[in-house]
Amino acid sequence: MENQINDMLKAYIKLVRPFTLLAPLIVSICIMIASYKYNNIAIDLTKLLLTVVIPASISLAVLNAGSNALNQLTDLKSDKISKPYRPIPKGTVSAKEAMLIATIFYALSISIAFLINPMFLLFVLSITFFTVTYSLPPRCKDILFINQLWVGIPRGILGILASWSVFGNSLQPLPITIGFLAMFFLIGGSITKDITDSEADKKTGTKTLVNTYGLKQSALMSFPFMFFPFAFVPILIDSGILEPQFFILTFLTIPSVYIFYLMLKDSKKGRHLENTPSWALMYVTYFFFAFGFSVITITGQVIA
Predict the structure, then answer these.
(1) Cβ distance 98 to 69 under 8 Å?
(2) CB 9: neighbour CB atoms within 10 A?
(3) Domain of 158: which CATH number?
(4) Quick one: CA torsion of 192, 197, 201, 203, rounded to 10 degrees?
(5) Which tens digits make up the pLDDT trace of 61-79?
(6) Domains in the chain: how many in total?
(7) In 3D, which of 227, 213, 197, 210 has the Cα closest to residue 263?
């Protein structure tokens, strides 16, 4: 009995793909702390961690967990071809269980967001709309180019603005600028997840850049979206949109170039990864972008 429970829990954990939950968790915490410092909130941060920051970041993380469960449920046909080890095609999690888990996580995320503030709730609902319409018929995931937007918008600008809205005004120029940079980077970088699924997606009716134009051409098409958001940082500084200390974000052009190189090289999964090394580096680069932005914003406010 104990072994069955452990196996069931392991299957549920695989269903929500915990590695991908690090992005909304880490990114949101970084952005929230930056917003706290930037907006000079009078209440001590340690008092807000347990009551605001951690609950809000958990809301975004479990929203992603619900999205992952729903996506695996609706990707059953392609997963049977490219990822038969996943819990649903393997038979360790049923379709009904997956839908129930997705529903619980979506409801939990929205419930927590309701307790944060109205603007944060609005952003969570907006992200929910994008993730649900991405997976459920008529699936935006199946539509060429639209599927890239449906990943970049919620995980980029909406995620950034949601986190910023916890302590600040989401219409401030700084979070909007950073949100757009994140969105464009993810529009380009998110095709790294399609490399290993290329043939399976094609057989099941999902059109992606990779299975439509080939890996080399799709890498060339996505590269400007990954490279130029960071390359344009000096221009944004010169125009007064960003402060000079944000220049350090320009160095993220280096991993962006390497992601492009890995995309040209990648056709198989990493040794310890579900996806390719370029996919993992894309996530890591996004972590550093959010962390770097947070540190620069915090130190800038301290110095000021």
Answers:
(1) yes
(2) 10
(3) 1.10.600
(4) 150
(5) 999 999 999 999 999 999 9
(6) 1
(7) 210
Token reading at 49: 């961690």
Residues of the chain with confidence (pLDDT) below 50? 302-304
Read off the pTM.
0.93
Range of 218's domain? 2-303
pLDDT 10s digits, 174-211:
999 999 999 999 999 999 999 988 999 999 999 999 99
Token digits of residue 151: 């990943």
Residue-wise pLDDT for 42-63, tens only, equals 999 888 999 999 999 999 999 9
